[in-house]
Design brief:
The chain is α/β, with parallel strands linked by helices and 485 residues long. The chain is built from 15 helices and 17 strands. The strands form three sheets. Strands 16-15-14-13-7-12-11-8-17 form a nine-stranded mixed beta sheet, sandwiched between helices. Strands 3-2-1-4-5-6 form a six-stranded parallel beta sheet, sandwiched between helices. It has a two-stranded antiparallel ribbon with strand order 9-10. The structure holds 6-O-phosphono-beta-D-glucopyranose.
């Protein structure tokens, strides 16, 4: 199957940091269909060869096992092309169309890896130039809007040029292998389904922790903050995967219909509940993994006195029969103790303990990173239970599944998977416009309440698990965050 893959924002960070390395891996793994052309589009003048050198030079920043040898890069470079475009000029889109029409590739993927402020103009121009035929797919990178209104506006423009099934909205967390494993766990095995409900589950915790700070992205980040950057998209998408009903088929829309229902069932926030159930924080100087690090306000390009949040913890509920009353805790932050993303399903404790120590409940941990795995925590007999008495007789143990070891050759990175899916036209792991809009609708009361709240984010020391208020919030339900257990 021949394809043309066009990157708008072809010299930007996302393209050389994530997309080019992912495509190279796809080529190395023999997964990239033959007969492809990759075209980078950006503002400045350069030749194909200059662009190839630009990409090659940037591969030094990629982890060494994922860097191409000279010979491999040669092969990859043959696919790469470059084109200068001023994104506001119609004749430049006509030039692009002529380049694409030189051969009729089976699939044309137009990847908007630019600032979202450019999405409307690009989509309008693509439509006007006729670059929206049935073989065309448009891939939209997050952030898709800044709030509900801007998201609606972007979607209106996208819809005016493309049909919904041509729009591939990326949330790279959906491309992570753990999400595949979560789907397989829930819908490929009957074991957990009877337990996957309020009667058996006490609470669910989704933690997306990063040890890094905002680095050089201070200007972008300061306009965004952790709620828009991580919760509105990545954390909510994971929540839908955990909470959704089994879809009737594995088709994209069957899955996305069920995810949308979860988003619609989320308990809405009010100005009062935001203050009680949402904690925002901002890191100050501290130590992360033994190294001293700056506070957020000292980072480059961060405006003095910024009240941008770098941490959010919140409590919500999914208001339906399956989940009524079960707290879902979501938490994300920069400069936390480690790069650690996981979903913890805490089961209820035994109803009547007959062994000392058996009040400790089972939990299932779905690990997204740094490892990709599954742990089932149980209690086992360490001593002779009939002797009773000592709490140590029952000891926590875990069944531990490491997917990297289980399938050593099959591991595919998130962007690699999503790019290949976009080329193949598989929409399952992409976000539909109604899901995305509903997610914005749900976060809006939080943004609005924060605008009115003079207190700003709570400070936390870099290297800690965020402001103590995040622990206090779950303690009100008699819970602790997983790392405190
Ligand atoms: C991006 C955010 O979407 O996800 C970044 O914009 C964040 O701020 C990144 O660092 C985290 O992704 P990952 O895959 O490294 O966990």
């Amino acid at each position: 199957m021949s394809f043309d893959l066009v990157f708008f924002g072809g010299t930007g960070d996302l393209t050389w940091r994530k997309l080019m390395p992912a495509l190279f891996q796809a080529l190395r793994h023999g997964k990239l269909p033959e007969g492809g052309r990759i075209l980078a589009v950006a503002r400045d003048e350069r030749s194909d060869d200059e662009y190839r050198r630009f990409v090659r030079d940037r591969f030094v920043e990629v982890e060494s096992s994922k860097r191409p040898s000279d010979e491999e890069f040669e092969r990859f470079a043959r696919l790469l092309h470059y084109r200068r475009m001023d994104l506001s000029r119609p004749e430049h889109y006509e030039g692009l169309k002529a380049w694409i029409d030189e051969r009729s590739a089976d699939t044309v993927v137009l990847y908007l890896a630019t600032s979202p402020y450019l999405f409307p103009v690009i989509c309008e121009q693509l439509g006007a130039a006729g670059l929206n035929g049935p073989q065309v797919r448009v891939v939209l990178e997050k952030p898709l809007g800044h709030d509900l209104d801007s998201a609606l506006q972007i979607n209106r423009v996208v819809r005016s040029a493309f049909r919904e099934e041509q729009a591939f909205r990326i949330d790279h967390y959906l491309g992570k292998p753990a999400v595949q494993n979560l789907m397989a766990l829930r819908f490929g095995n009957a074991l957990f389904e009877p337990l996957w409900r309020r009667e058996s589950i006490a609470n669910i915790q989704i933690t997306l922790a990063e040890s890094l700070g905002v680095g050089t992205r201070g200007d972008y980040y300061d306009k965004t903050g952790a709620l828009r950057d991580m919760i509105q998209n990545h954390a909510l998408q994971l929540l839908t995967m955990i909470a959704m009903e089994p879809p009737s088929t594995s088709d994209a829309d069957a899955i996305r219909d069920e995810k949308l229902k979860v988003l619609r069932s989320l308990k809405p926030f009010t100005a009062e509940t935001v203050l009680r159930d949402v904690v925002r924080g901002q890191y100050k100087a501290g130590n992360v993994q033994g190294d001293p690090v700056k506070g957020y306000l000292e980072e480059v390009k961060v405006p003095p006195g910024s009240t941008c949040e770098t941490f959010v913890a919140l409590r919500t509920e999914v208001q339906n029969w399956r989940w009524a009353g079960v707290p879902f805790y979501l938490r994300t932050g920069k400069r936390l103790p480690g790069r650690d993303a996981q979903i913890v399903v805490n089961f209820r404790a035994v109803p009547h303990p007959i062994f000392p120590g058996s009040h400790r409940a089972n939990k299932l941990v779905i690990k997204l990173q740094p490892e990709d795995g599954l742990e089932l925590h149980l209690l086992a007999a360490k001593g002779n239970l009939s002797h009773g008495g000592a709490a140590e007789l029952l000891s926590p143990v875990k069944l531990d599944l490491d997917f990297d070891k289980a399938f050593p050759t099959e591991r595919v990175g998130a962007y690699e998977r999503l790019l290949l899916d976009a080329i193949a036209g598989r929409l399952n792991l992409f976000v539909r416009s109604d899901e995305q809009e509903q997610a914005w609708r749900w976060v809006m009361p939080i943004l609005q309440a924060w605008e009115r709240d003079p207190n700003g984010p709570r400070p936390y020391t870099a290297g800690s698990w965020g402001p103590p208020a995040a622990s206090a919030m779950v303690a009100r339900d008699g819970c602790t965050w997983d790392e405190e257990q």
